[in-house]
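Posting here for the record, re: flavin-adenine dinucleotide.
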Amino acid sequence: MQDMRGGGMVPETKMQIRSGDTADVIIVGGGPVGMGLAIELGQRGKTCIVVERGCRLHNIPKGQNLTQRSGEHFKCWGVSEAIRDASTIPHDYGSAGVTAYGTLLSGYDYDWYRRAQVGKFYAAANERLPQYATEAVLRARVAKLDTVQTRFGWSATGIDQDADGVEVVCAQGPDGEHRTLRGRFAVGCDGARSRLRLSAGIEQDIDPHDRRMVLLVFRSTELQYLLKRFEGKSYFNVLKPELEGYWQFLGRVDLGGNWFFHCPVPADTTLGNFDFAALLQGAVGAQFDIEFDHIGFWDLTIAVAKSYQRDRVFIAGDARRFWHQYRI
Ligand SMILES: Cc1cc2nc3c(=O)[nH]c(=O)nc-3n(C[C@H](O)[C@H](O)[C@H](O)COP(=O)(O)OP(=O)(O)OC[C@H]3O[C@@H](n4cnc5c(N)ncnc54)[C@H](O)[C@@H]3O)c2cc1C
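Prediction output follows.
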């Protein structure tokens, strides 16, 4: 993978939390939603502290399709140019997909998604880039706002609230000392397993699909040539009768031979007992070179919070609604 992958980036500097540090809003989680919210509030003169447990960005190329509506937010946040510069696929090429039946090269396919075509209805373009690259841009923008402070390397462990405000308890690592941040409001942007949602007692409706999914991130030059007929397309859904409506999902990370692939696998699949190259080649319908960068599993689950607010505590992003639980 390229050097810009999240895991390869310079780690953020840890900053101490002094008990009693105060802001208008305490944001738990510095992913795309937490950082976007911090920029939005910070630009409006509201003070924020973002608590993010990680110091380095992750290196999974997820969340890549950024629609024109997302582009409009980027415009308001002053990051359109930086997002465009970080994009790994041009916007007239990105966010366009094909559904294929049997295998990707079967000849039975349906060109169903061309996001760039609706561009003229929006004030910004769509872009396609890995989420770690988007997050890097948002972090850089946050660093320029005097109203926003960040605390990387700290985890929120619980929250208390009363009529006047909230207290978010944070720790640096499992055995770390606990410190408290105070705010008028708190927002949990801490992802699918949101601690803030749990601490605030917000329940979810859960639709468990009991599906083990694999995520493969890999490099292949030959696949570029095999998919020449799909030039201008960035992702591909392959349907097979035995998948009973679930998809195999292949996508470009860039135009330089980096790819990702998701699909259901048997529940007992491990790194050691499965032929992931054969799975990929079976989806495409041809043999090709494969060099894996990452093999991981996730559980397909759909969960929606019953409420997005408990008094002074809000939840946003995947903390509110998600369709997966990332595992490895
Ligand atoms: C494998 C995979 C593939 C995906 N592919 C796509 C895709 O192709 N297109 C798409 O639109 N979406 C995709 N998604 C979904 C997309 O990535 C999420 O919707 C998006 O990341 C949600 O952003 P978020 O900021 O709400 O949460 P997250 O990105 O999960 O960020 C949460 C942040 O909170 C931090 N955190 C968690 N707990 C604490 C705590 N207690 N204290 C402090 N910090 C904490 C985490 O370290 C993290 O940085 C994919 C997701 C996965 C898992």
